[in-house]
Amino acid sequence: MEAEHDIIDLNDIIELVNGFYAKVQHDELIGPIFNDVIKEWEPHLQKMYAFWNAVLFGVPGFTGNPFARHAPLPIEQAHFDRWLVLFNETVDALFAGEMADQAKKKAETMALMFLSKLQHMRGCPAKVIV
């Protein structure tokens, strides 16, 4: 079944975030990392609704420093790759359109930025990802 509508409002963001993190929690690679750090999922999900609402629609309400929360985690390229696969699968299963494409582009940009910053912070040479 193909997605029939684009991401248009907070309700769609909630559907996206819930679907994505349901996959994350059960994923063999990244699930254990998230499940170890996030003891109560509801507050995290609420924060992610606000985050993606700000990222996609410019709606104020998100506070926090996502990179600082990820910096101490044992995550590498493979984790970011898997995160993107799960995110893109979720978007594609639920939505189609310009905003859905924008969400995937924003996620890819964030993953690349986080990975680059982590590599720099850990003293690893920067890698060019094409």
UniProtKB/TrEMBL annotation:
Presence of the UniProt keyword Heme in the record: yes
Lineage, highest ranks first: Bacteria, Pseudomonadati, Bacteroidota, Sphingobacteriia, Sphingobacteriales
Name recorded for this polypeptide: Group III truncated hemoglobin
InterPro entries: Globin-like_sf, Globin/Proto, Hemoglobin_trunc
Sorted UniProt keywords: Heme, Iron, Metal-binding, Transport
Molecular function GO labels: heme binding; metal ion binding; oxygen binding
Residue ranges that the Swiss-Prot or TrEMBL entry lists as coiled coil: none
